[in-house]
Amino acid sequence: AVPHQGNLFGVDGQLDAIDDRLLAASVRDGQLWTAHNISVNFSGVSPGDRNGSRWYEIDVSSGAPELTQAGTLFDTAVTNPRFYWVPTIAVSGQGHAAIGASASGVTERINAATAARLAGDSLGALQGPTLYTASTFSYNPAGDPGPTRRWGNYSSASVDPSDDMTMWPIQQ
Description:
By secondary structure, this protein is mostly beta strands.
């Protein structure tokens, strides 16, 4: 379950992080890119007390799939961490990647976040995340009393076909 600022219903008002299945896999130049939820701690090690978004690049160009790299978008805060869940990842023609995910925490309202990975970064590395929404509203729908609330079941990250460079992470 994912906490969020403004939750009026305690545990029953927390958000459903869904599960840890791989989401929205895509193949580009013989590389499969995909991401999923994972429980991690403040150092990114599983299991833990928060949700992170783990992503993978898997070489599927010849024979058996082989892991090229993997990384995790997570918060290093010891207390009151931000949770990241329902992630997807896309890669541009230049080899840069963007991961999009839902984000919230005990002291944060629900928002959408993105983090970039530049082609020249160390394997598994991500640039720092950015929230690209700035919610000022609490999420307490009367029609969804819990035990955990549905939020952001879908995510999409895509590359703009007009330039093969601009990436669009979208959270439900």
